[in-house]
Amino acid sequence: RGVMVRYVYDFTQGGRDMAGLLGGKGANLAEMTRLGLPVPPGFVLTTEACRAFLTTGGEPAGLAREVSDHLAALETTAGRRLGQPDDPLLVSVRSGARFSMPGMMETILDIGLNDDSVLGLAKVSGSERFAWDSYRRLLQMFGSTVMGVDRALFEEESARLKDVRGVPDDVHLGAGDLARLVEIYKDLIHDETGDWFPQCPAEQLRRAVLAVFTSWNGDRARLYRRREHIPDGLGTAVTVQRMVFGNLGPDSGSGVAFTRDPATGRPGPYGDYLPEAQGEDVVAGVRNTVPLTELERLDPGSCARLREHLRTLERHFRDLCDIEFTIERGTLWILQTRIGKRTAEAAFAIAAQLADEGLITPEESLARVSGEELARLMFPRFDASMTGAALAHGVAASPGAAAGAAVFDSAEAVRRAAAGERVVLVRQETTPDDLPGMIAAQAVVTSRGGKTSHAAVVARGMGKVCVCGAEELSVDVRARRFTAPDGTVVGEGTALSVDGSAGAVYPGSVPLVDSAVMRFLETGDTDGEAAGVVEAVAGALARADTVRRLQVRANADTPQDAARARRFGAQGIGLCRTEHMFLGERRKLVEDMILARSDTERDRALAALLPLQRRDFTGILEAMDGLPVTIRLLDPPLHEFLPDRTDLAVRIAAAEAHGDLPDPHDAELLAAVDRMHEENPMLGLRGVRLGLLVPGLVAMQVRAIGEAVVERTRAGGTPRAEIMVPLVGDVRELRIVREEAERVLAEVSAAAGVPVTCPVGTMIELPRAALTAGRIAEEAEFFSFGTNDLTQTTWGFSRDDVEAEFFSAYLDRGVFPVSPFETLDLDGVGRLVRIAVAEGRATRPDLTIGVCGEHGGDPASVRFFHTAGLDYVSCSPFRVPVARLEAGRAAL
Ligand code: ADP
Ligand code: MG
Ligand code: MG
Predict the structure, then answer these.
(1) What average pLDDT does range 317-323 have in this prediction?
(2) Can you tell me the distance from the alpha carbon of 67 to that of 71, in angstroms, rounded to the nearest whole number?
(3) What is the DSSP letter of 479?
């Protein structure tokens, strides 16, 4: 390249807005340096250097030169050279990508130690133990990360030595022991690799840097990126930083701290400290940490400075921050900061507090919480003080929390559940054969598969708690047990707790607590133990309601659902399906309608259904009085209401086998089933096509709606029914149905002497409907996007058939990052939506447009519907608060 590319930045040359180039860690170290916080000096090799290295396989030209220049500067400030034998400068080599990938890549500490400088370090520090401890740490990290020796082998050697000495942990090993360990490790590295650990500090540095670059493409890192939707092409930056030592004796140590409690959001610093330790010991959990109150006692000066720095950082970043810190002989150093991860509860609490404190605006406060977090707070959950450490993490596939005895096959799940036991079904992955077990279980855990794996899809459909793809678990179905990464073996019958909202599996039976947020949403009650969080949620929803432009309606088919949706803030019903109303005892009437041999017979069956339908609609219109209720005419193919063909055939065959005559009704039904069989029912006789082909059906449904409106009007109510015609592909279909509907409504109105006006509109769920929306709007008073069918028909796949099987392959192979049934496919389906909105409104400027597919409750999709100019989204009652919040955020 003609232009000179710069690959290395000193901490004093960067800042927080350079995360793309310096990684989050490097950029924030630079930012803290600028703020004057005590950060050990250092420099950052850019992600660009990493990308160049990974694409060409070699170090980019000029990189080595830039590194040695920056190292020289670092050496000058420190007054000593890297690995200088009598007083060595030591550095850490740290990974850090643009997006935090905790623990996924490598970091190597204590670079610069060798057989000579370890002696110098011992002398200048006055601690032989410290020097040998640092050297063996370097050998361990360098040996595994750079030279590829299995980490466990080092652990085995150190465990063996501790055994011989009869001591429980590393702190009890003396200088002599550690020096011995150094020799053992050096031999181990040589035995395993055929190479000796490099004694040259510059070579150590160079190889460590390249190893960190390479770790970007490690299995763990790739897997994590796929799960978190982080692009593979970003690369990691590498930070080279002067070491500070927490392992320099009792007045030293390391810790992590948060500006507020990340679990509850409680204000005031929160953290853990580990005396006599380097940072990696804190995370590794080798010894138990102590709370900050204990640091206060051990080292009040450092603790006070720590608190002050936390305050500075929170004011500066205007958000919850977490930090890594190290105290070296009473001097405090900050080694990392970032915006802290937090629970849903803490997210709401902190957003509200920061706004109250004037640090952020109310709008920013709303932007800081998400619909997903709200959804999580609506489920009963585990008592956070009782969970302990997770056995494993996986994909949070279906929210909620549940506990039960572990079982490893469907039959056992069914057997135990029948005996009244609560069970958790654990499998590598589930298949349709596991269905009975999934129904019987409280929760499902799998070690394979993502959000659209069979387990995830089925569990969500059943509202069952599910964690899938917990790859750390090694599940042995035959032996009826699994092993967790910490070595815990969980056998059949052992209690297990599953948090489907957080994607975590815990040992034992963790107690559940009811959701205070749900109680608030149901009753408006903000009192109680979680009052802070509930008030924060109430405040966020109130703010969202003031700023949002999108209305939120609910999909509800019963008065109960309608009433609940209304309590949750629904502004009407966007989809009232009528098919459920044809089930149960009414099936017989539907059969009669289908089998009718004459108009009279059919009219009789329809007439019997009419009062039942009228009652359904009256109840719903009452629950939603004053608000719009969009009633969809019957949509599914009629044969769905007939019995299963095999059942019928078996019944007939059984009768014949007994020498009896088969029930003539059965024979008739079988003939009807055969007559109405469709190869592709999804694309068959359904939706508006039924209205055109089954005489009297539309008239009956419309009459029931009209009469319900009359009844409600007479009762003093304000019914606002809307009639929605499904699966329209051409304006003429809609015109025929609409004319019929208007004729019936006029009749009802005239007979009752009560005005009955119901807008008639259509679903847009076929590409042809979207593409001819301008024509369709001539007949439609409103549009409602049926995005489930529109997704199926646009992609040409049937959801029921593809989701479990090939979607996981499609996700794995990157065809789409997320299932198009979960988040609207903006490029394809979204484009059709935009066309239909523009052309529909061109014909009829006051056209009301909404969406009633499941996407109506999906945060990312809600955002799109806002920008696409829709008037409302409609979703299941439980998603209504989520959609309100997201509609508010979309409008910010
Ligand atoms: P990760 O991204 O996995 O947290 P880090 O690069 O933050 O990796 O480093 C791992 C541990 O080593 C952290 O606890 C960090 O504080 C510690 N560490 C890194 N660099 C230094 C240093 N220069 N001096 C002392 N400790 C360090
Ligand atoms: Mg870190
Ligand atoms: Mg549909």
Answers:
(1) 96
(2) 6
(3) T
Pair 552, 565: CB distance under 8 Å? no
Of 319, 376, 371, 320, the residue nearest 540 (C-alpha): 371
User: Does ligand 1 come within 6 angstroms of the Cβ of 88?
Assistant: no
- Considering the domain architecture, whether residues 502 and 600 belong to the same structural domain is answered as no
Q: Which residues are registered as beta bridge partners of 89?
A: 82
Lowest mean pLDDT: which of 71-75, 203-207, 582-586, 627-631? 582-586
**Overall average pLDDT of the 736-754 stretch:** 98
Total number of domains in the chain: 4
Beta-carbon contacts of 659 under 8 Å, excluding residues fewer than 6 positions away, are none
How far CA 426 is from CA of 414, 430, 446, 828, in Å, comes to: 13, 9, 6, 37
Nearest ligand to the CA of 242 is: 1
Q: Which two tokens stand for residue 229?
A: 């939707």
Q: Which amino acid is at 10?
A: D
Among 242, 263, 288, identify where a domain stops. Answer: 242
Among 732, 781, 736, 789, which residue's Cα sits nearest to residue 765? 789
**Ligand 1 contact, 624 CB (< 6 A):** no
Residues linked to residue 872 through DSSP beta bridges, in sequence order: 551, 850
- Is the pLDDT score of 1 beyond 50? no
| ipTM of the prediction | 0.97
- 710 Cα: distance to centroid of ligand 3 (angstroms): 29
In the structure encoding, which two tokens stand for residue 6, read together? Answer: 């710069």
Residue 560, token pair as written in the block: 């109960």
Same domain, 484 and 586: no
Question: How high is the mean pLDDT of the chain?
Answer: 92
- Structural domain of 507: 381-513
**CATH code, domain carrying 756:** 3.20.20.60
Q: Is the dihedral of CA 505, 506, 507, 510 positive or negative?
A: negative
Shared domain check, 503 and 465 = yes
Q: Is the CB of 107 under 6 A from ligand 1?
A: yes
Residues known to be catalytic: 454, 852
- For residue 788, the ligand closest to its alpha carbon is 3
| Percentage of residues in the chain having pLDDT higher than 90 | 73
Cα–Cα distance measured from residue 713 to residue 708, given in angstroms and rounded to the nearest whole number: 8
